[in-house]
Amino acid sequence: MSxxxxxxxxxxxxxxxxxxxxxxxxxIRALMIGESLPGxxxxxxxxxxxxxxxxxxxxxxxxxxxxxxxxxxYTEYRGSADIRAxxxxxxxxxxxxxxxxxxxxxxxxxxxxxxxxxxxxTVAAGDKVAIVQPDYFANRKLVKFLGGEVVxxxxxxxxxxxxxxxDLSALEAAFLSGAKVFVFSNPNxxxxxxxxxxxxxxxxxxxxxxxxxxxxxxxxxxLRYEGEQYSHIRASGLPKAQCVTIMGxxxxxxxxxxxxxxxxxxxxxxxxxxxxxxxxxxxxxxxxQAVLRSWFAEPAGWMAQRVSDHQLIRDDLLxxxxxxxxxxxxxxxxxxxxxxxxxLRVAPLDFVRLLRQQANVIVTPGTEFGPHxxxxxxxxxxxxxxxxxxxQRIVTMAERYKV
Length: 403
Hints:
Layout: H1 3-9, E1 42-43, H2 58-68, H3 70-73, H4 81-95, E2 105-109, H5 110-122, E3 128-133, H6 137-145, E4 149-154, H7 168-176, E5 181-185, H8 197-209, E6 213-217, E7 243-247, E8 260-265, H9 267-280, H10 286-289, H11 302-324, E9 336-337, H12 348-359, E10 361-362, E11 364-365, E12 376-379, H13 384-401
Parallel strand pairs: 1-10, 3-4, 3-5, 5-6, 6-7
Antiparallel strand pairs: 2-8, 7-8, 9-12, 11-12
Helix pairs in contact: 5-6, 5-9, 7-8, 11-13, 12-13
């Protein structure tokens, strides 16, 4: 296989969220046991924005940008200066550390776009990159695509008494081995674990000592349950030149259709990201950028209600999986659960396909997040009744196919 083919093999989308419909399942019919289960189709690979719609003024913000016309359509590559100024103030207040509107922030086509730009701006061929297992599926794929070497760092998400359960000794060993970049999500995707203040402080201390650049994905940091405390690594003593934070309103605020992301932090890295964005997409879509004015400006009580509604679904799902005996980390934030299935008589990836065929339920296999073949990820930002019924079908299917 050519080096170019190898690069793109690392970006396989066979089991990525939203891609299931492109696969043929004809070859698994011989594995099927029993009849199909009735029930409303539920796609747990992403949130349901019909069940949880965007803030009420999002469309109005977009329409206003269209009325403005060219001035809003053709912004700087890093985004509208006015909007960056608003966001810098809000993000500074939210994270507890300064954000430069001029040199320290860039608007991107989604947080996925921000992640690509940040990784490409910090990882060169041959570089070692510390990656948490489990963590967001794109992290290790991007490292491999960019020619880097993944240095895995385990997280005992099921056994942790405090915080996320990151193996801090293994993280230090990764830095000692030469890893110069550390990328992680907090809250963790897929488990919903939140890093404790002690863990964040230790990460910052180690990264400072070993001159490691930290890329922090904080996409779900507003959706926290039961007053969960949250520590922003950019406010934990890490030199500002060594940190880039990624956030956006696509998930918690249901603005995914507008493809909006924000990265902020080290000016040198932001500059590199802008140069790359200039040849990849030029800018985040100009009219869409205006929708960011609704972020952190939702009506009174809107966010609290969103958190409350998600917590109810979370608790009901946890009860279903606990009764079934599926070990599951209790998410402290975000909208994901990551249950561990019993031993099955079919391969884990085949079981995911059988769920789609026989139960009308789509989940993301645990293999997307590291060596976790017996786990599945569910985004529970769904219609509550439909989600609970679909979870019961998952349990029924696991019983049917277990060893």
